[in-house]
Backbone:
């Protein structure tokens, strides 16, 4: 079916058309390509590029080359002697405890002593202790001034020597296990081993000195009490000797007992004499009877002797001008004081022995499980590592300066 016819469109007025240029020449020749832009000129380095290259040479290449030259031609070889030790305690442990491994080992060390040793090894006291066995300045300045970076300046002060010592000695302290590792660097293997052994000996002497001081502090009070108890016993013994010298009696109690026995015997004799006298009178003997007279005389003599003995006991007729009662009382007091002092002496001596045993149990000593070795190969300076670190810092510094320069130039 045919499509419907479109609606009629009003006719437009024609515009003049400008003819397009035909490709080709003016006479209708072949078509030509549009003209190309002129080629860019070759890039030439500018002044800033030459300055950047010069700065790289001056700040990186020349310093790195100089450092390499110094490390491989001037720096002297150094040998490192290593050792490792710990502070042990004289604890009496059973075989099972000794098999406890690292735990038992760690509990037997004193971390505080290891920290003290760490400070002591880097102190002037350690330097002085080493100098007593090794001519440390001469050994450390052996390669001066050829190696003025790694060698010691012989004109330096003791402070300079201590600073250089801390550069040559490395201390690694493991707080968990209580193990201390010490590395000593020197310009010969023998000197490195000798210095390391000297460090160990000085450290051991320091630990022993601190241990003795701690033991003395722990037992000082017990020792003072023991000295007081011994002095008290000696004082009472002197008083007892003076008493016996004054009274001329070794044991007043025994002397007093013997006097009482004499009085008791006399009283027995008096009783017998009185009984005999009563029997004579009951049997009709007259008072003038010689037997009665003799009996009365005997009774009177016995009574007089009893009275004299009693007076001697109770009055000051005893040797030394004191009565037996006074002497016995004084002797008993001295004896009681001496007994108490002797018992106190026994107790204080036991306390002192206990404190001494405890102090000995806490005694610490230095135990080296790795002895100072004799190095065979030079380990310092680590030339490749030092050169790499130096080159890295030089390159980093140059890069930062270059970035700063370009940043300033772009803002300007």
Residues:
């Amino acid at each position: 079916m045919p499509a419907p016819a479109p609606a009629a469109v009003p006719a437009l007025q024609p515009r003049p058309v400008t003819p397009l240029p035909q490709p080709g020449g003016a006479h209708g020749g072949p078509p030509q390509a549009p003209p190309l832009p002129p080629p860019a000129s070759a890039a030439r380095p500018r002044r800033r590029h030459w300055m950047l290259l010069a700065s790289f040479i001056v700040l990186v290449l020349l310093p790195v080359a100089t450092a390499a030259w110094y490390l491989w031609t001037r720096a002297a070889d150094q040998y490192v002697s290593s050792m490792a030790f710990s502070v042990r305690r004289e604890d009496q442990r059973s075989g099972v405890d000794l098999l406890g491994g690292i735990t038992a080992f760690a509990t037997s060390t004193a971390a505080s002593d290891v920290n003290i040793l760490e400070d002591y090894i880097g102190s002037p006291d350690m330097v002085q202790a080493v100098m007593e066995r090794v001519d440390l300045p001469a050994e450390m300045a052996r390669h001066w001034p050829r190696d003025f970076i790694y060698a010691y300046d012989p004109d330096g002060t003791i402070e300079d020597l201590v600073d250089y010592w801390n550069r040559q000695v490395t201390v690694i302290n493991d707080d968990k296990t209580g193990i201390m590792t010490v590395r000593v660097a020197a310009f010969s293997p023998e000197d490195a081993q000798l210095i390391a052994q000297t460090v160990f000996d000085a450290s051991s002497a320091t630990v022993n000195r601190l241990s003795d001081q701690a033991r003395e502090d722990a037992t000082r009070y017990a020792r003072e009490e023991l000295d007081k108890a011994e002095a008290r016993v000696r004082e009472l013994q002197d008083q007892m000797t003076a008493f016996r010298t004054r009274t001329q009696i070794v044991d007043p109690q025994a002397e007093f007992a013997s006097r009482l026995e004499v009085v008791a015997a006399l009283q027995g004799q008096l009783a017998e004499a009185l009984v005999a006298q009563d029997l004579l009178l009951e049997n009709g003997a007259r008072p003038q009877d010689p037997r009665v007279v003799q009996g009365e005389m005997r009774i009177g003599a016995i009574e007089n002797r009893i009275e004299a003995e009693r007076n001697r006991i109770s009055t000051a007729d005893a040797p030394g001008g004191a009565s037996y009662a006074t002497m016995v009382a004084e002797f008993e007091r001295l004896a009681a004081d001496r007994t108490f002092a002797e018992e106190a002496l026994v107790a204080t001596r036991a306390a002192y022995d206990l404190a001494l045993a405890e102090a000995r149990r806490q005694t610490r000593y230095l135990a080296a499980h790795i002895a100072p070795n004799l190095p065979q190969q030079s380990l310092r300076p680590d030339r490749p590592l030092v050169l790499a670190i130096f080159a890295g810092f030089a390159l980093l510094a140059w890069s930062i300066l270059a970035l700063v320069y370009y940043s300033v130039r772009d803002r300007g």
